[in-house]
Amino acid sequence: MISIKQNFSQFRRLDLFGMDVRLLAHGQQAYRTNLGAFMTLFLFSLLAYSCNSFILEMNKGKNAILNQKESPLLQNEGFSFNSSQFIYAIGMVDSLGQYIPNENNRIFQVSFYYCKKSLLETACEVFPAVICGSRISEAAKQMNVPEDYQYITYCPDDHFAQTHQDIRFQGSQRMDNLTLLGAYIQKCTNSTETQNCAPEEEITKSLSNANLFYSYSFYQFNKELDLYPYEKVQNLDVTPCYPNIRKYIKVFYQYSVTTSEYNPFYFFPSTIDQDAVEYQQTTIDTFLDYNLDNTFAQIEITLNFKKKLNYVTYQTLMDVAAKIGGFFTILKALFYLLLYPAQVIVYRLYLINSLINQQQTFTTLENLEQKDTQTKFAKLRIRDLIRYSRARSTYFNYLKKVERLLDITEVLSNPLRLTRQVEDIQGSIRKFDPAKNQFQVRVALDEIIANQDKNDIQSPRSVNQELQPVIRQSIFLNRLQPK
């Protein structure tokens, strides 16, 4: 039993929400409870879990600080795609979204071109288009492109992939050193080389109010990714086609450079530069076509003359510590507000029980006068306050007495000194002769108190000080029953 009490005493030392008092007999500065110690352990458990979560987020690059700005593109700056990982596909559907049958290019045909423009000349290579099929299967799986989509769209042929294993997009402010990738979409026309086009009425009917869709891949910036802060995505745009209207569509990429600063221990930072191209915007120009050319749409992908700079600073352990400190302060304040009513009741019960114990153990003049008001409870508990109305009445009565008459140092003073003082007073009271007059009793008591004051160091509110107002009043000797 003693070991259990000692364990609870040690456990209560964890309580961060104890009620502050001026003095406790055990030398502590706060009254601590098991409930407060349990909530303290719960608080530190939450902090440990949060600390682990914050560190994991730091390692994953979560909550990194991002700064962005734009800058003019420098000479020869650009980005290169691997042709097997780049998707550039074009297709046609009718007004209801159904695929337009185009066997052997009998309704329309698509051709791709790749141009390099310098200050003196522009060199372009044209490549025929074929059904994409398995050519883009690997890249389509990475970007979650439906498999059926691969067999209704047109891509550059195998010769293009063999000739240009890397597709470089390069821009220039003066438009004198750039590259672009484009495509022509034309009506099928019979010539001396091919005679497989559908009748003109069928071509006009199929292409009237048709929808041209074109798809292209690029990168999207995401600062919370591991290793590489860009993820590859696939964009799909749709534009309607009308008779005698030609469309010139230009898709602008933007060169993007990310500088990542890793500094987990707040010292010796390291930086990594990584680049990619992101989608910026699409412009569509339309103009009337008087059948001078069978081309009804032209799509080009090029690089804009401005680049985007991303500066990413990932969290350090100092940032994690600051977050944990702020989180701890907020939780502690919240727990304090929640526990305050319970802690006040438990603390007051402790004071009241200390007073009850002293009244039931020792006999003083005040206890003799208020003997009929003393409680029959040996110790008040919270469950007694809930179950019994008499216990609640006793609680409020003693609470008024504690708050009005007794000091904390009086209720919680050293029991040995209090016992000695009370025993000396009891012995002095027994020496009184009821037959003597009231004046002699007062003189005798004053002498005892004076002698006691010389020998003992009194607390800020000692037993003698409590008895002085009682002794100085008129004492009716017939109320004292000599032993």
Report on this structure:
Helix content is 37%, strand content 29%. The protein is of the alpha+beta class and 483 residues long. It folds into 2 domains: 2-48 and 320-479, no CATH class; 68-314, no CATH class. The strands form 4 sheets. Strands 3, 6, 7, 8, 10, 13, 14 and 15 form an 8-stranded mixed β-sheet that branches.
Topology record:
Layout: H1 2-12, E1 19-20, E2 30-31, H2 34-60, E3 65-72, E4 78-82, E5 88-93, E6 108-117, E7 122-131, H3 137-142, E8 154-156, H4 158-163, E9 166-170, E10 178-187, H5 200-207, E11 211-221, E12 230-240, E13 245-262, E14 270-288, E15 295-313, H6 317-361, H7 365-369, H8 382-387, H9 389-404, H10 408-411, H11 415-430, H12 438-455, H13 463-472
Parallel strand pairs: 13-15
Antiparallel strand pairs: 1-2, 3-15, 4-9, 5-11, 6-7, 6-10, 7-8, 10-15, 11-12, 13-14
Helix pairs in contact: 2-6, 6-9
Strand elements, count: 15
Largest sheet: 8 strands, mixed
Q: How much helix, percentage-wise, in residues?
A: 25-40%
**Beta-strand fraction estimate:** 25-35%
End-to-end Cα distance? 39 Å
The residue ranges in which pLDDT falls below 50 over 5 or more consecutive positions are: 22-27, 456-483
Mean pLDDT: 76
Radius of gyration: 46 Å
Q: Number of helical runs?
A: 13
Number of domains: 2
The geometry reads as elongated
Counting helices, strands and paired strands, the structural category is alpha+beta
How do the SSEs run, as a string of H and E? Answer: HEEHEEEEEHEHEEHEEEEEHHHHHHHH
- Multimeric status of the protein: single chain
Protein name: Transmembrane protein
Organism: Paramecium tetraurelia
Keywords: Membrane, Transmembrane, Transmembrane helix
